[in-house]
Write a structure and sequence with these properties.
The chain has about 120 residues and is mainly β. About 0% of the residues lie in helices and about 60% in strands.
């Protein structure tokens, strides 16, 4: 089974930076895609960024130019570098993977979330 460990959240002042990490472990054959999502209290969960197995990235308009998603395939780890943080970025950030456990079994798995708080 799959385990996801998220880290890197915390409290930062506006204009600062944080780097989130999400490490997948377990019996994983391959990861098709990683995604970062976020959800503020009382608001809809939204897509922040994705990266596919081929390296293609996609970003929400609100974070373009400020956030960068990357991966380390050897470590089955995805990162989200967040620069020029704004108070509106405050949310719980969730990592999601779409993966193959074997050639016959595909799963979607969510991390438990990490809190990012940006003070004004």
């Amino acid at each position: 089974q799959v385990q996801l460990v998220e880290s890197g959240g915390g409290l930062v002042q506006a204009g600062g930076s944080l780097r989130l990490s999400c490490a997948a472990s377990g019996s994983i054959f391959s990861i098709n895609a990683f995604g970062w999502y976020r959800q503020a209290p009382g608001k809809q969960r939204e897509l922040v960024a994705t990266i596919t197995s081929s390296g293609t990235t996609n970003y929400a308009d609100s974070v373009k130019g400020r956030f960068t998603i990357s991966r380390d395939n050897a470590k089955n780890t995805v990162y989200l570098q967040m620069n020029s943080l704004k108070p509106e970025d405050t949310a719980v950030y969730y990592c999601k993977i779409n993966a193959l456990l074997n050639i016959a079994t595909m799963i979607n798995y969510w991390g438990q979330g990490t809190q990012v708080t940006v003070s004004s």
